[in-house]
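Researcher: We're teaching a course module on how sequence relates to structure. For the next exercise, students receive a sequence and then see the predicted structure as tokens, so they can try to spot secondary structure elements on their own. Here is the exercise chain.
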Amino acid sequence: MPPDQRLGDAVELHLAWLDFYRETVERKLTGLSEEELRSSRLPSGWTPLELLKHLVFVERRWLRWGFLAEDVDEPWGDNGPDGRWGLDGDDTLPNLLAELRSGGERTRKIVSGVDGDGSGEVLATVAAEGGRFGADDVKPTLGWILFHVLQEYARHTGQLDVVRELADGVTGE
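Model: And here is the predicted structure for the students to work with:
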């Protein structure tokens, strides 16, 4: 279910919508056959599992490598020469969904650990230097990063809506 319409806290609103989209992605993928998960119905050629892996890396790349400046192995993921996400033997639906959920929990911990500048402006906190952003880079705010990740989820969930409808006719949230 979407977040409560009475929710007014901007930080919690961002996090609640991210939770909603993670859950929606899981619903869209659960029930697809292994063949449907690993084949494409879209002109882009992305498979549903590749799209899921992309979302796992988007959140990791922006929150851990980008905002916190943590060292992250392969922050861009395993893109092949054609730009598509490469799947490894461990890249199954249960494993990737577990990574997606774990990434969401990590995002909540990251955001809850931000003090801001003491004024309560958590979303205005600027990303750390290092990791994704060097000394000369314009560093985005946490609010910008969360909104960017949210739009990634929304866009790709829309693609999964189409895939699921084409696969078995299931529509809706």
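Model: If you want an answer key for the exercise: The first helix runs from residue 10 to 29. The chain is about 55% helix and 0% strand.
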